[in-house]
Amino acid sequence: MAKLEILHFPDNRLRTKATDITAIDDDLRCFIDDMYETMYDAPGIGLAATQVNFHKRLIVIDVSEDKNEPLCFINPIITHKDGIEMMQEGCLSVPGFYEDVERAESITVKALDSQGETFELSTDGLLAVCIQHEIDHLDGKLFIDYLSPLKRNRIRKKLVQHHKAQSKENAQSDPVL
Ligand code: GNR
Ligand code: NI
């Protein structure tokens, strides 16, 4: 297993539209394990392949308290949405920022599991919000896209500043070759 690097806004690679997965094999299952490790280590309740620079339609989620209910969705499609709900969201690709977002309250999602079997799940609450957040990632969309341009630009500036400060720090601690 390996921990993968998570891309941060405003990295343009987060805007890539992921394509369908066509082969569900051992290589892919290894990659899914790496995604779980990355998600649990972060820690986060979900992770989309887009966030680790793999532009295929794959997400992993675990919203359980004990972090022992891993879910994997391959080529997920929302077939039904109902109601509207507001929830405060965060994102591993937008670290440190939490904002209210409106989503469908309950959804039905159809996907393939890691064995390539089709399944359907109807759910609401945090799991429904998380599935919608992750599928947005696969379409190159972030939760901050639902905020005003003013708020989004403030977040962009703060993260760019933070990244600059960090790379300076890293450069200073790098040994001179
Ligand atoms: O860890 C996460 N928490 C979270 C909280 C509210 C709504 C969505 C999320 S998903 C996020 C992990 C992440 O960035 N997934 O893409
Ligand atoms: Ni996210």
Low-confidence stretches: none
Radius of gyration: 17 Å
Tell me the strand percentage band.
Answer: 25-35%
Mean pLDDT: 97
Q: Helix count?
A: 3
Largest sheet, spatial ordering of strands: 1-2-3-4-5
Give the cofactors and ligands.
ligand GNR, nickel (II) ion
Number of strands: 5
Query: Main β-sheet, in a few words?
Result: 5 strands, antiparallel
Q: N- to C-terminal separation? A: 31 Å
The chain-level structural class is alpha+beta
Structural shape: globular
Helix content: 25-40%
Instruction: List SSEs in N-to-C order.
Output: HEEEEEHH
What does this structure look like?
With 177 residues, this protein is of the alpha+beta class. 31% of the residues lie in helices and 27% in strands. A 5-stranded antiparallel β-sheet has the order 1-2-3-4-5. The longest helix has 25 residues, at 149-173. The chain is globular and about 50 Å long. The mean pLDDT is 97. Ligand GNR binds next to β1 and α2.
